[in-house]
Predict the structure.
Amino acid sequence: ARQSAPQRFKDFLTRRRLRLTAQRRAIVESVFNTDQHFTAEQLLAWARQRDKSVSRATVYRTLPLLTDSGLVRELDFGQAYKFYDPNYAERPRHNHIICQDCHKILEFDSEPLEQLQNEIAQSLGFTLQSHRLQVLARCDEFRKTGACKKAPQ
């Protein structure tokens, strides 16, 4: 069986000769107990619910470790801040569609899209390693009513 994401991150820290401090543990538990995309500030708030001593600096130092481990991906949706996606640990090949109006982020998988990307890469003499697809859109609801139902983000 495959190791859990928190265990895989602990192994990553060990390989980097870094310790899993109490603050880091609170951050990691927060990350892998959500399937929501989050900002650094949201992560700080969640981690502080687990351990009041978690500092902003530790969150900002731990995020690059999480992304370097390949378990979390940093996403730039053209906002003033980055989002982080904890779902790459279990589903490394998913894509995103982002509402330009309410900034709702939905994930989707597509086997035909996956196949097409592989075919295109091969036809150009490449072997696909990973991909990042972000579809920017406006939801139909907004077009009809002038407002989106704000999805929890």
Notes: The radius of gyration is 18 Å. Strands lie at 73-75, 83-85, 95-99, 105-108, 134-137. The CA atoms of residues 77 and 83 lie 8 Å apart. The first helix runs from residue 5 to 15.
